[in-house]
Amino acid sequence: MEKLEELWLDGNFLTGSLPEISNLVNLKIVHLEKNKLSGSLPKYLGSLQNLRELYIQNNSFSGEIPSALLSGKVIINYEDNPGLHKEATKKMHFKLIVGISIGILAILSVLLLGSIVYLHSLRRKRSNQKTNDQGNSMRMSTKPSTGYSIGRGWHLMDEGVLYCISFSELEEATKSFSKKIGKGSFGTVYYGQMKDGKEVAVKIMADSTSYMRQQFATEVALLSRIHHRNLVPLIGFCEEEHQRILVYEYMHNGTLRDHIHGTHQKRLDWLARLQIAEDAAKGLEYLHTGCNPSIIHRDVKTSNILLDINMRAKVSDFGLSRQAEEDLTHISSVARGTVGYLDPEYYANQQLTEKSDVYSFGVVLLELISGKKPVSTEDFGAELNIVHWARALIRQGDVVSIVDSVLIGNAKIESIWRIAEVAIQCVQQRAVSRPKMQEVILAIQEAIKIEKGTDATHKLSGSGSSKAQSSRKTLLTSFLEIESPDLSNGCLVPAAR
């Protein structure tokens, strides 16, 4: 246990005080958010030399936060702990006064020195002045800003948050941007390998010449603060030569879209699809509830769900091109989306919310069940899209007709039904009737438990007349007829309770 580097115990309903973990000296990342932990934060947390991230929001901790955790070397989120506050001692106040005094003296010294240099420069010839001015122009610091914070309770590390990578380094890493691995609304992505052997995905932002410098800086600051196992991590950036470039961890197995709709010889089995769905749902749920302000993805789709070397899913392209108004409750993207995934309520009110992401994820779930694309006249005929097509069949109690042929005989029907039900809840016409991502995660976990179970649950067959199929039909459709007799608004299942 002493070699443990990451501790992920978020959302496990833990109670009581924080257990003794001072012997875990190699800890780098600790996630304890969304539990019911109480008591004070032990002083030894500030003595863990390798600790870089501490997430304790949504608990009941009280007392003072050890000053060592607020030094800037640790990313800490302590939101929603009403009794928890910063340490305020006379010693700290004394240090603050001394620090301010030293700072003022330093500023006065710089001003004095600057005045001397300025007076000396006046004696130079005009031509030398021009030369010097030209030689000193366009210089900028590559050190990340340390004055940015994200909401109350967040602190930015002084150094080492991200690598500022030069354009020439990226040219070398990508062999002059020779291997394109993706292209989207935000730009083109290239494969690269850094000098230390690390594989990266290099995204050159589209229309980078007009991309506001301050917006890019804010974007980088935000993305550098977001850390979750199911989100593609940003590891560096480049801002030079009129280029705005983001450098991400390379995901070896491409996109979920590639595996569902591409030419991969080995198609995903049902359990693999469920695990990918769970991973992606956890990533989205973290954006909605684990970030402050919360982040709306706004472009959830199978091509934005990437798979690492172990086939674990991570969500990409979150937080890009968001609106920057100071009075917004949520940080979110510029209104955008992809045909087949876009929340139908957006057309009415021009607003996208967390429930818009839920709608899009419901479409992803239907793709995982059916293996079909969201929009296809060939597949859906007059229904035009996967939502209308699947909704009509599921309402009739016929899940077999929408299932990917490679899953027939290889998946348990009750597991398929559980995902079909939550998918239809996600794509309800009205946002208020859709579940939260946490509810979606629970449904997926239930389906995984069913699929892994050793009980005599029916395997899915090509016939829609199985006992499990018909009994589920009776339960679901009778409930729908009671709750939603008027189907003109497209609402085919009741709201998640």
Automatic annotation (TrEMBL):
It is found in: Membrane. One of its GO terms (cellular component) is membrane. InterPro entries: Kinase-like_dom_sf, Leu-rich_rpt, LRR_dom_sf, Prot_kinase_dom, Protein_kinase_ATP_BS, Ser-Thr/Tyr_kinase_cat_dom, Ser/Thr_kinase_AS. Keywords: ATP-binding, Kinase, Leucine-rich repeat, Membrane, Nucleotide-binding, Phosphoprotein, Receptor, Repeat, Serine/threonine-protein kinase, Transferase, Transmembrane, Transmembrane helix. It is a single-pass membrane protein. Pfam families: LRR_1 (PF00560), PK_Tyr_Ser-Thr (PF07714). SMART domains: S_TKc. ATP binds at residue 203. It comes from Jatropha curcas. This is Protein kinase domain-containing protein.
